[in-house]
Amino acid sequence: MSTPKILVETTGAITTVTINRPAAKNALDNEAARGLAAALKAFEADPSVRVAVLTGADGAFCAGADLKELGSGNDYFPWAGSDEGPLRSPLSKPVIAAIEGHACAGGLGVALFCDIRIVDETATFGVFSRRWGVPMSDGTTVRLPRVIGQGRALDMLLTGRAVGADEAIAIGLATRKVPRGKTRVEAEKLAAQIASFPPIAMTSDRQSAYESFDRAQASAIRREMELSMAARRQESQSGAARFAKGEGRHGKFER
């Protein structure tokens, strides 16, 4: 599924998707946005891969929509609000963002689409499109408050200010900070760890967490129970038996 603007590499159970427009700080023009959607769709459909890593080429994550394309009269299609958009709804499998440099405007939306965001000291988040009158159509106004809270989200949305790596960690926008230039390596290590776990319980817990936003507490807890049943039937007994035999004790956290 690779194209010149979207590179896809699969090793074992891990797929790495790289936005490859470094001259534009990996801003997505319409062609690249559709390429990203196709790459994510292919990952979703492939039962042999369990976790994706999403990153950008040459020290930048994604600078949002290509404003040069927009300024030339070519409108961009909504990345979250259209059926063909790459960010329409969470996938059924985890996606980890490896973020260096700018994740701004729509690039912030791309980062928020991911389950986990790993950054280095160069990472910068922000709704920089505020100054140009370009609205969010990538899920940012919905996902950002859920990740960092309404007050902090409104501060970012209204002011368009930059949020660096350390502040992103402090407010929960970023999950982990790693040495400079190591985000992809560390994201792929984490992806391999997650991919090694029994998949049914992991994906059902993830799905329950996402679905809980749309439900009252009692309904969300009932849904958690419903989603847990397949893992309880297919994974829990064998997992408990491994524990009883001594696996996982003394601080070891392995499959």
Give a written overview of the molecule.
This protein is an alpha/beta fold. Helices cover 42% and strands 15% of the residues. A hairpin with a 2-residue loop joins strand 1 (6-11) and strand 2 (14-19). Helix 3 packs across helix 4 and helix 8 (199-211) runs antiparallel to helix 9. It is globular.
Instruction: Indicate the radius of gyration in whole angstroms.
Output: 19 Å
CATH topology of the largest domain: 2-enoyl-CoA Hydratase, Chain A, domain 1
- Looking at the chains present, what oligomeric state does this protein adopt? single chain
What name goes with the CATH superfamily of the largest domain? 2-enoyl-CoA Hydratase, Chain A, domain 1
Sequence-ordered SSE layout with sheet pairings:
Layout: E1 6-11, E2 14-19, H1 30-45, E3 51-56, H2 67-71, E4 95-99, E5 102-104, H3 106-113, E6 116-119, E7 124-126, H4 140-148, H5 150-159, E8 163-164, H6 165-171, E9 176-177, H7 183-195, H8 199-211, H9 217-234, H10 236-244
Parallel strand pairs: 2-3, 3-4, 4-6, 5-7, 6-9
Antiparallel strand pairs: 1-2, 7-8
Task: Record keyword descriptors for this entry.
six-stranded mixed beta sheet, alpha/beta, 2-enoyl-CoA Hydratase, Chain A, domain 1, 255 residues, globular, three-stranded mixed beta sheet, 2 domains, 10 helices
Quick description:
With 255 residues, the chain is of the alpha/beta class. It has helices at residues 30-45, 67-71, 106-113, 140-148, 150-159, 165-171, 183-195, 199-211, 217-234, 236-244, and strands at residues 6-11, 14-19, 51-56, 95-99, 102-104, 116-119, 124-126, 163-164, 176-177.
